[in-house]
Design brief:
alpha/beta, two-stranded antiparallel ribbon, Glutaredoxin, 9 helices, five-stranded mixed sheet
Protein backbone atom coordinates (compact mmCIF):
# COMPACT_ATOMS: atom_id res chain seq x y z
CA UNK A 1 0.00 0.00 0.00
CA UNK A 2 1.49 3.33 -1.03
CA UNK A 3 0.10 5.16 1.98
CA UNK A 4 -0.87 4.05 5.46
CA UNK A 5 -3.97 5.69 6.80
CA UNK A 6 -4.53 6.35 10.47
CA UNK A 7 -8.24 6.97 10.96
CA UNK A 8 -8.93 8.41 14.38
CA UNK A 9 -12.11 7.93 16.32
CA UNK A 10 -13.79 11.23 15.71
CA UNK A 11 -16.35 10.50 18.39
CA UNK A 12 -13.60 11.23 20.92
CA UNK A 13 -12.92 14.55 19.20
CA UNK A 14 -16.48 15.78 19.24
CA UNK A 15 -15.70 17.72 22.41
CA UNK A 16 -13.79 20.12 20.18
CA UNK A 17 -17.10 21.46 18.92
CA UNK A 18 -19.79 22.81 21.21
CA UNK A 19 -23.22 21.36 20.66
CA UNK A 20 -24.51 24.71 19.52
CA UNK A 21 -21.66 25.11 17.05
CA UNK A 22 -22.87 24.64 13.49
CA UNK A 23 -19.62 22.84 12.75
CA UNK A 24 -20.80 19.87 14.83
CA UNK A 25 -22.65 18.61 11.73
CA UNK A 26 -19.41 18.81 9.77
CA UNK A 27 -17.65 16.65 12.33
CA UNK A 28 -20.52 14.16 12.25
CA UNK A 29 -20.15 13.92 8.47
CA UNK A 30 -16.44 13.28 8.91
CA UNK A 31 -17.19 10.55 11.47
CA UNK A 32 -19.54 8.92 8.99
CA UNK A 33 -16.86 9.08 6.29
CA UNK A 34 -14.37 7.45 8.66
CA UNK A 35 -16.80 4.67 9.47
CA UNK A 36 -17.57 3.99 5.82
CA UNK A 37 -13.94 3.89 4.73
CA UNK A 38 -12.98 1.67 7.67
CA UNK A 39 -15.64 -0.85 6.67
CA UNK A 40 -14.57 -0.78 3.03
CA UNK A 41 -10.93 -1.39 3.93
CA UNK A 42 -11.84 -4.44 6.00
CA UNK A 43 -13.01 -6.19 2.85
CA UNK A 44 -9.99 -5.31 0.71
CA UNK A 45 -6.85 -7.40 0.24
CA UNK A 46 -5.47 -5.86 -2.95
CA UNK A 47 -3.06 -3.04 -1.97
CA UNK A 48 -3.85 -1.08 -5.13
CA UNK A 49 -7.58 -1.18 -4.43
CA UNK A 50 -6.96 -0.15 -0.83
CA UNK A 51 -4.81 2.72 -2.02
CA UNK A 52 -7.57 3.97 -4.31
CA UNK A 53 -10.04 3.85 -1.40
CA UNK A 54 -7.63 5.84 0.75
CA UNK A 55 -7.14 8.38 -2.02
CA UNK A 56 -10.90 8.84 -2.22
CA UNK A 57 -11.06 9.23 1.55
CA UNK A 58 -8.41 11.95 1.51
CA UNK A 59 -10.20 13.89 -1.22
CA UNK A 60 -13.60 13.62 0.51
CA UNK A 61 -12.20 14.51 3.92
CA UNK A 62 -10.36 17.49 2.49
CA UNK A 63 -13.52 18.68 0.76
CA UNK A 64 -15.32 18.56 4.12
CA UNK A 65 -12.52 20.52 5.76
CA UNK A 66 -12.64 23.15 3.03
CA UNK A 67 -16.40 23.56 3.35
CA UNK A 68 -15.98 25.47 6.64
CA UNK A 69 -12.21 26.03 6.94
CA UNK A 70 -12.36 28.37 9.93
CA UNK A 71 -14.76 26.24 11.98
CA UNK A 72 -13.67 24.20 15.00
CA UNK A 73 -14.50 21.00 13.14
CA UNK A 74 -12.35 21.96 10.18
CA UNK A 75 -9.32 22.40 12.42
CA UNK A 76 -9.92 18.97 13.96
CA UNK A 77 -10.24 17.38 10.51
CA UNK A 78 -7.14 19.13 9.17
CA UNK A 79 -5.01 17.91 12.06
CA UNK A 80 -6.35 14.39 11.56
CA UNK A 81 -5.63 14.15 7.83
CA UNK A 82 -2.65 16.50 7.48
CA UNK A 83 -0.03 13.79 6.95
CA UNK A 84 -2.07 12.32 4.11
CA UNK A 85 -2.54 15.51 2.10
CA UNK A 86 -0.72 16.35 -1.11
CA UNK A 87 1.46 19.45 -1.30
CA UNK A 88 -1.28 21.21 -3.23
CA UNK A 89 -3.91 20.38 -0.62
CA UNK A 90 -1.66 21.59 2.19
CA UNK A 91 -1.07 24.84 0.33
CA UNK A 92 -4.81 25.32 -0.17
CA UNK A 93 -5.54 24.53 3.47
CA UNK A 94 -3.15 27.15 4.79
CA UNK A 95 -4.12 29.68 2.13
CA UNK A 96 -7.59 30.09 3.59
CA UNK A 97 -6.62 29.91 7.27
CA UNK A 98 -5.62 32.67 9.63
CA UNK A 99 -1.98 31.76 10.27
CA UNK A 100 -2.10 33.52 13.65
CA UNK A 101 -4.73 31.04 14.83
CA UNK A 102 -2.74 27.88 14.10
CA UNK A 103 -1.02 27.71 17.49
CA UNK A 104 -4.37 27.87 19.29
CA UNK A 105 -5.64 24.91 17.30
CA UNK A 106 -2.47 22.82 17.60
CA UNK A 107 -1.51 23.22 13.96
CA UNK A 108 1.60 25.39 14.22
CA UNK A 109 3.98 22.43 13.96
CA UNK A 110 2.16 21.25 10.85
CA UNK A 111 2.56 24.66 9.27
CA UNK A 112 6.23 24.78 10.23
CA UNK A 113 6.75 21.34 8.66
CA UNK A 114 4.94 22.47 5.52
CA UNK A 115 7.21 25.52 5.17
CA UNK A 116 10.26 23.32 5.74
CA UNK A 117 9.04 20.95 3.03
CA UNK A 118 8.80 23.86 0.58
CA UNK A 119 12.27 25.08 1.49
CA UNK A 120 13.74 21.63 0.93
CA UNK A 121 11.71 20.56 -2.10
CA UNK A 122 13.28 18.84 -5.10
CA UNK A 123 15.43 21.33 -7.00
CA UNK A 124 16.14 23.47 -3.96
CA UNK A 125 19.60 23.72 -2.36
CA UNK A 126 20.01 21.55 0.71
CA UNK A 127 19.57 23.05 4.17
CA UNK A 128 22.50 22.58 6.53
CA UNK A 129 22.10 21.39 10.12
CA UNK A 130 24.12 19.86 12.93
CA UNK A 131 23.74 16.39 14.47
CA UNK A 132 25.92 14.46 16.87
CA UNK A 133 28.18 11.41 16.90
CA UNK A 134 28.00 8.78 19.63
CA UNK A 135 30.84 10.67 21.33
CA UNK A 136 28.82 13.87 21.36
CA UNK A 137 30.79 15.58 18.61
CA UNK A 138 28.80 17.94 16.43
CA UNK A 139 28.91 17.26 12.69
CA UNK A 140 27.23 19.35 10.03
CA UNK A 141 25.54 18.00 6.93
CA UNK A 142 27.75 20.32 4.91
CA UNK A 143 30.73 18.17 5.91
CA UNK A 144 29.28 15.31 3.85
CA UNK A 145 27.71 17.13 0.90
CA UNK A 146 30.06 17.36 -2.07
CA UNK A 147 32.28 14.48 -0.98
CA UNK A 148 30.62 12.15 -3.49
CA UNK A 149 28.44 12.44 -6.58
CA UNK A 150 25.36 11.60 -4.51
CA UNK A 151 24.62 11.75 -0.80
CA UNK A 152 21.65 9.93 0.70
CA UNK A 153 20.54 11.36 4.04
CA UNK A 154 18.64 8.65 5.91
CA UNK A 155 16.39 9.78 8.78
CA UNK A 156 15.62 6.69 10.86
CA UNK A 157 15.29 5.27 14.40
CA UNK A 158 16.09 2.02 16.17
CA UNK A 159 12.41 1.42 16.99
CA UNK A 160 11.25 1.94 13.38
CA UNK A 161 10.60 -1.42 11.69
CA UNK A 162 10.46 -0.08 8.12
CA UNK A 163 13.71 1.79 8.76
CA UNK A 164 15.48 -1.35 9.86
CA UNK A 165 14.11 -3.34 6.94
CA UNK A 166 15.53 -0.79 4.51
CA UNK A 167 19.11 -1.24 5.71
CA UNK A 168 20.00 -4.34 3.63
CA UNK A 169 18.99 -2.45 0.50
CA UNK A 170 21.18 0.49 1.48
CA UNK A 171 24.09 -1.88 2.00
CA UNK A 172 23.56 -3.27 -1.48
CA UNK A 173 23.56 0.23 -2.96
CA UNK A 174 26.84 1.05 -1.26
CA UNK A 175 28.37 -2.23 -2.36
CA UNK A 176 27.49 -1.50 -5.99
CA UNK A 177 27.86 2.27 -6.18
CA UNK A 178 30.12 3.23 -3.30
CA UNK A 179 32.39 5.08 -5.68
CA UNK A 180 29.58 7.54 -6.44
CA UNK A 181 27.18 7.25 -3.52
CA UNK A 182 27.62 8.07 0.16
CA UNK A 183 25.11 7.69 2.97
CA UNK A 184 24.79 9.43 6.31
CA UNK A 185 22.33 8.18 8.89
CA UNK A 186 20.42 10.70 11.02
CA UNK A 187 18.75 8.99 13.96
CA UNK A 188 15.78 10.55 15.71
CA UNK A 189 16.17 8.20 18.68
CA UNK A 190 15.77 9.76 22.11
CA UNK A 191 17.53 6.75 23.65
CA UNK A 192 21.22 6.95 22.73
CA UNK A 193 21.91 3.42 23.93
CA UNK A 194 19.11 1.93 21.82
CA UNK A 195 20.47 3.84 18.83
CA UNK A 196 23.99 2.49 19.29
CA UNK A 197 22.75 -1.06 19.84
CA UNK A 198 20.78 -0.85 16.59
CA UNK A 199 23.79 0.50 14.67
CA UNK A 200 25.82 -2.46 15.91
CA UNK A 201 23.14 -5.09 15.40
CA UNK A 202 22.42 -3.87 11.87
CA UNK A 203 26.16 -3.61 11.13
CA UNK A 204 25.86 -0.15 9.64
CA UNK A 205 29.17 1.01 8.23
CA UNK A 206 28.30 4.51 7.04
CA UNK A 207 28.45 7.61 9.29
CA UNK A 208 25.75 7.72 11.94
CA UNK A 209 24.60 10.86 13.74
CA UNK A 210 21.78 11.58 16.18
CA UNK A 211 19.40 14.49 15.75
CA UNK A 212 19.31 15.22 19.48
CA UNK A 213 17.77 18.69 19.20
CA UNK A 214 15.51 17.93 16.19
CA UNK A 215 17.37 20.50 14.11
CA UNK A 216 17.54 18.24 11.07
CA UNK A 217 13.99 16.98 11.39
CA UNK A 218 12.64 20.52 11.62
CA UNK A 219 14.82 21.75 8.75
CA UNK A 220 13.40 19.11 6.39
CA UNK A 221 9.87 18.92 7.80
CA UNK A 222 10.33 15.29 8.82
CA UNK A 223 7.07 14.16 10.40
CA UNK A 224 7.40 10.43 9.72
CA UNK A 225 10.23 7.97 9.20
CA UNK A 226 11.88 6.42 7.32
CA UNK A 227 12.58 9.51 5.27
CA UNK A 228 15.49 9.86 2.88
CA UNK A 229 16.81 12.86 0.99
CA UNK A 230 19.06 12.44 -2.05
CA UNK A 231 21.48 15.33 -2.61
CA UNK A 232 23.74 15.95 -5.62
CA UNK A 233 27.39 16.91 -5.37
CA UNK A 234 26.51 20.57 -5.96
CA UNK A 235 24.05 20.54 -3.05
CA UNK A 236 20.84 20.35 -5.07
CA UNK A 237 18.08 18.17 -3.61
CA UNK A 238 17.29 15.50 -6.17
CA UNK A 239 14.60 13.44 -4.44
CA UNK A 240 12.71 12.73 -1.26
CA UNK A 241 12.15 9.09 -0.39
CA UNK A 242 13.44 7.64 -3.68
CA UNK A 243 13.23 3.86 -3.92
CA UNK A 244 16.48 1.93 -3.98
CA UNK A 245 15.75 1.12 -7.61
CA UNK A 246 15.30 4.80 -8.44
CA UNK A 247 18.60 5.64 -6.77
CA UNK A 248 20.39 2.91 -8.70
CA UNK A 249 18.84 4.06 -11.99
CA UNK A 250 19.89 7.65 -11.32
CA UNK A 251 23.47 6.68 -10.54
CA UNK A 252 23.71 4.49 -13.64
Amino acid sequence: MKRIIYILCVAMLMVACKKEDKSAKLLEDYQALNDRISEELKEVEDPDVADSIITAFIDEAFALQQAQPESEAAYVILEDIFYLLSDGQKAQAFLVLNIDSLEVHGLQRHYDAYIAEQNTAVGMPYTDFAAFTSAGEAKRLSEFVGQSDYLLVDFWASWCGPCRRSMPGLKELLAKYGDKLAIVGISVDEDAEAWQQAVGALELTWPQLRDTNDEGSKAYGIMAIPHTVLIARDGTILAHNPSHEEIAALIK
